[in-house]
Amino acid sequence: MKIAVIGAGAIGSLVAGYLKLKGEDVYLVGRPATVKAIKENGLKISGCRGEFKASVDIYEMLVSSPKLLILATKTQDINQFLRDNLSLIKDSIILTTQNGVQADNIVAKVLPKKNIVSSIIMFGATYLDPGKVVHNFEGSWILGNIFGQGTNTNTISLSLSLNKSFNIMISEDILGMKYLKIFVNANNCIPAILGVSMQEAFCDPEVSRISIAIWKEGFDIIDKLGIKLTSLPGFPIENITKLIALAPQEAAQVFSGIMTKLSKDPLYGSILQSIKRGRSSEIDYLNGEFVSLAKQNKLEADLNKKMVEMVHTVEQNGKFFSKAELLAATKEFLN
Fold it and tell me: What total number of domains does the chain contain?
């Protein structure tokens, strides 16, 4: 099938590159600097599968109507893209890849729900430079239908095509998984605030203690609202519930040990990667989701609200906080 991947960042580039290497009819849509780099030098992928160079066609805009449109932009960029390209994509299968739970709802405002397949990406990638990405670690690509029960034919069709390059799973409860994935990503805010890799940020148990508090606050909100969480492959719900049940200092030590061993290559997280590229991040759809749920239901999410505010401050002035400043700003939430 004709495939267009929208967004040539870490995930979009990795997906397009691997699909092309497997012989799929795929092209990328990216920003001018990335388009220039890939046209001149190809798309270079390194990491856990070795080093590759893929000759992927890339353009600054959608140039034809694809059978499958893989949205690999940030959530905040979806709406404008859809409206600008509606005539070309009105009959396409739309595959969302964004973190958080709002991307599918945004797409559904302008396109039929039957055309939308939701997904969760559990593999890791880092954007180095235009046309250069690292595949940090393997993981499943989970597909499902966020708008109802059952697996539609589009989901099955996509699984057969994408399974050539990725470990594809189909979920009957992808919404519950998406809510749990917010917890997986909720601590990306800390490396973004400090401007360092995850390994460097979380090697300090005091910083890791903030992460446990972020999870506990988020879980309290989700639990009070009766939102169902569904285990992810390699990340069961118990990863959250067992840690937040421990004494904070003990939980922080465990979390620190896990996070510093995730990858031999530095991991920066999606939020910091966006900031480094001069783009707005997806913080409002991660920690901000906890804040929104709390506000709508008259609950408290003060720590997650503080994280959102600090990330936006970094986005606006380009200056990272020191570890001492982060610890001082969160001290009241850790007692």
Answer: 2
The 10s digit of each residue's pLDDT in 240-286 is 999 999 999 999 999 999 998 887 788 888 899 999 989 999 999 99
Q: 77-96 pLDDT, tens per residue? A: 999 999 999 999 999 999 99
Quick one: how far is CA 77 from the chain centroid? 14
Which of 140, 172, 204 is a domain's end point?
A: 172
243 Cβ neighbours under 8 A, 6+ residues apart: 212, 215, 251, 254, 255
- Half-sphere exposure (Cβ direction) of 323: Cα atoms closer than 13 Å: 12
- Are 15 and 122 members of one domain? yes
Cα separation, 203 vs 242, in Å, equals 20
- Three-state secondary structure call for residue 85: coil
- In degrees rounded to 5, what are phi and psi of residue 66? -85, 155
Enclosing domain of residue 327 = 178-333
Look at residue 232 and give its three-state secondary structure.
strand
Do 208 and 324 fall within a single domain?
Answer: yes
Sorted by sequence, the CB contacts under 8 Å of residue 44 that are 6+ apart come out as: 51, 52, 53, 131, 132, 133
Q: For the residues of 105-119, what is the DSSP string, one character each?
A: HHHHTTS-GGGEEEE
